[in-house]
Design goal:
The complex is a heterotrimer. By secondary structure, chain A is an alpha+beta fold. Chain A is 23% helix and 9% strand. In chain B, α1 runs antiparallel to α5 and α2 crosses α5.
Chain lengths: 238, 180, 324
């Protein structure tokens, strides 16, 4: 009986200890990183594995180092990659479906030419599933072409969007209104810009009516396509 | 098909939902209620697999989803608005997912977090029988957050995207560039 | 007539003001709870909606207002819709005998204690109706637990309050307040610490707050007796839970902490300060302790609080009537 009382008193004391711990936390500063206004350290973000991208060529930065050996295609456990060889060693199609990727890095490690690396595309959010299929050759060209190349930028989604060309001023998009709140930074190559321009209206596509450009079918795929001859890459929105 | 053959054009999702317009359909009132709905999205505790850890991490101290009103994770589907499908949807779990979605009262929103919820992810291969290849075969999905798993900031961006779909504008500034 | 016109008007005005108080209290409490929960977990809580998150509760209530209303197919038609209303309105009645200030008692009756204790039981009725009327096994389990818990913990509450009544010699809340002094060492908590402690525990248990929140436990019962309520029904349960918390905090402040009496000037502000300090304490407890198992909860009541309450009452009676 007395032991029960003593145990209960000890229990009450432990309750007070617990409350003092939470009381101490109550008075200590918060450790939240207020996300859109502040971000975590770059050291963490640059070690984050985002979708893969092609590395720059050694001689010509606009050309890839890939030799279409298909080692990455075989190594990928999710079957995300499609590489088509052209007449020379260089690939003519390089498609990557990010929604099947598990970021294992098998492709990056296996590539004998060192043509692949991880990007750091951290804040990517899309409205459709088809936007996640990326054309990495086109992305390489857009990263390195033009007066302000930014080869370390993240790959942008390649499906027809009015503003997936980050170089041009986004005013070219006919019906997607400019984001009223976003502070338009000078460097427009970030992928999240491209996503925001997808149109704020609640339509699954978020595209203006006219911007359904021709499907990017630059070359003959392994199965053969009705389109036959490779069509020139068309800039969307043009 | 796992290996992409060509780039696909975005199309309408297969499952659709439709909500009746309200009886009093005036624009300012709709806008007022839309802003309130966007600022107080209550998620349902629906973590299925590893991406659920990222969802929990987004509701913890470092990246606090409570700042935007989405702190109250309700366990009951009747009191929730947002279903974050985080993780692999297996065949066994699929009827439960649909039942919970149907139990949520309108207006409701679905966010597919992680590659498994978007398309079956790395578990899709020829002849597999266990995994539903993408939760958008079962429910209409509003926002897709890719990654394996996505960072908690990406989940926050998904919530911002849903807020943008509801109200028509994004209220929070863009994050700064990585490395800038 | 039974009531003069002045008293009638006074009651009507008081009821309207109390409804306003309950709504304002719910808004303030939602904000306080989320912020305190946030700071205990070292995060800021609601921050972006309105300046420092102050409009968050308003957004929540507007959103709940605009949700779809439906009831499950098998749910009892009358009971399902009656339960939230029944949760909300009796609490109004309980606010009436409380002396808010020296001349601010909405309904000056001379047995306010009996009024409060008698009508506190109506709250459990609403839980039961919600649980039964939802035709959902989780709700029914939640309601059964709620009934057992609330009925059980009313008894130590009555015993603790009775000890104070014995001490003060009257059941009128105003005279209990008047008999306590201005300074904290003259309040009843000094004379009856055990009763205060028992009342604190019953307070947390009566309002189904953690660590005694089994009826609405999240990980066990998926929201317990209000599982099937969406939108406005849920908002009414929420509102009534916070109103109940405010009510029992007011009663604790009146009985043990000196009511509206305070060091510098007597007035209603002291009552509010004390009640909100007690509610802050309840929120603090919620985010500190894990949930108590159901048999531990009832054991606590029947094996510890009830004998202690009786002992306290007996000692008080002896000391007051025989020795003094």
């Amino acid at each position: 009986m007395l032991k029960a009382i003593w145990d209960n008193l000890k229990g009450l004391y432990s309750l007070l200890v617990g409350m003092s711990i939470t009381g101490r936390y109550l008075l200590s500063p918060v450790e939240t990183i207020h996300y859109p206004r502040k971000v975590v350290d770059d050291a963490i973000l640059t070690s984050f594995r985002g979708p893969i991208r092609l590395t720059l060529g050694k001689k010509n930065p606009q050309e890839t180092r890939c030799v279409s050996c298909q080692m990455c295609v075989k190594a990928c456990p999710g079957g995300c990659l499609t590489v088509t060889k052209g007449d020379t060693k260089a690939p003519i199609t390089w498609l990557y479906d990010f929604s099947y990727c598990c970021l294992c890095g098998a492709c990056v490690e296996t590539c004998p030419a060192g043509a692949l690396e991880f990007s750091h595309k951290v804040y990517w959010v899309t409205l459709t599933r088809e936007e996640l299929i990326m054309d990495l050759l086109k992305d390489l060209k857009t990263r390195t072409a033009g007066p302000n190349p930014n080869p370390s930028s993240n790959p942008s989604p390649a499906s027809p969007q009015p503003s997936s060309v980050p170089k041009d001023a986004p005013k070219a998009s006919p019906a997607a209104p400019a984001n009223p709140v976003a502070s338009q930074t000078a460097d427009q190559k970030a992928d999240q810009k491209a996503d925001q321009k997808a149109g704020p209206v609640a339509s699954p596509n978020g595209h203006p009516e006219g911007a359904k450009a021709a499907p990017k079918d630059p070359g003959a795929s392994p199965n053969g396509h009705p389109e036959g001859a490779p069509a020139a890459l068309k800039e969307p929105g043009v | 098909m796992a290996a992409p053959e060509k780039l696909l054009e975005p199309k309408e999702p297969q499952a659709q939902s439709w909500v009746e317009p309200p009886l009093i359909n005036l624009k300012p009132i709709n806008w007022f209620f839309d802003v309130n709905r966007a600022m107080s999205l209550w998620p349902i505790t629906f973590g299925l697999a590893c991406c659920a850890i990222e969802m929990m991490s987004a509701s913890m101290s470092r990246f606090d989803i409570a700042r935007f009103g989405a702190e109250v994770f309700r366990p009951s589907a009747r009191q929730a608005d947002l279903m974050m499908v985080t993780g692999t949807v297996t065949r066994k779990m699929a009827p439960v997912v649909v039942r919970l979605y149907e139990q949520m009262p309108a207006p409701k929103y679905v966010m597919a977090c992680g590659n498994c919820a978007i398309s079956g992810g790395p578990f899709k291969f020829e002849g597999q029988y266990g995994v539903v290849e993408g939760v958008d075969r079962l429910l209409p999905v509003d926002v897709y957050v890719p990654g394996c798993p996505p960072r908690p900031e990406a989940i926050l961006e998904g919530v911002f995207k849903i807020q943008e779909l509801i109200t028509g504008r994004r209220f929070w500034p863009e994050p700064r560039e990585i490395g800038a | 007539m039974f009531l003069s016109l002045a008293v009638f008007v006074q009651i009507i005005v008081a009821v309207l003001l109390i409804i306003g108080l309950m709504v304002a209290n719910a808004v303030a409490m939602v904000y306080m709870e989320r912020k305190v929960a946030g700071f205990i977990q070292r995060r800021p809580g609601p921050y972006e909606v309105g300046p420092r998150g102050t409009l968050q509760a308003v957004c929540d209530s507007m959103k709940l207002l605009a949700k779809q209303i439906y009831r499950p197919g098998n749910a009892d038609l009358i009971l399902y819709y009656l339960a939230p209303i029944l949760a909300f309105f009796p609490v109004l009645l309980l606010f009436l005998p409380i002396p808010f200030g020296p001349y601010l008692t909405p309904l000056p009756v001379n047995d306010g204690v009996v009024l409060i204790l008698a009508f506190a039981g109506l709250g459990v009725l609403s839980n039961l109706l919600a649980g039964w009327g939802s035709s959902n096994k989780y709700s029914l389990l939640g309601a059964a637990r709620a009934v057992a818990q609330t009925v059980a913990y009313e008894i130590p509450m009555i015993l603790a309050l009775l000890a104070v009544v014995l001490l003060s010699g009257s059941m009128d809340l105003k005279s209990i307040t008047e008999q306590q002094g201005q300074w904290p060492w003259e309040w009843n908590v000094v004379l009856q610490p055990l009763a205060f402690f028992i009342y604190l525990i019953s307070l947390v248990a009566e309002t189904n707050r953690a660590p005694f929140d089994l009826p609405e436990a999240e990980s066990e019962l998926t929201a317990g007796f209000h599982t099937e309520y969406s939108g406005m029904g849920f908002a009414l349960f929420f509102l009534s839970e916070y109103a109940n918390m405010l009510l029992v905090s007011f009663v604790a402040a009146v009985f043990f902490l000196g009511g509206y009496r305070g060091p510098i000037a007597d007035g209603f502000w002291w009552l509010f300060i004390k009640a909100y300090l007690l509610m802050f304490f309840m929120v603090w407890i919620r985010w500190t302790f894990p949930r108590v198992r159901f048999d531990q909860l009832l054991n606590l009541n029947w094996r510890w609080l009830l004998p202690l309450g009786l002992l306290n009452l007996w000692l008080t009676a002896i000391v007051t009537k025989l020795l003094v």
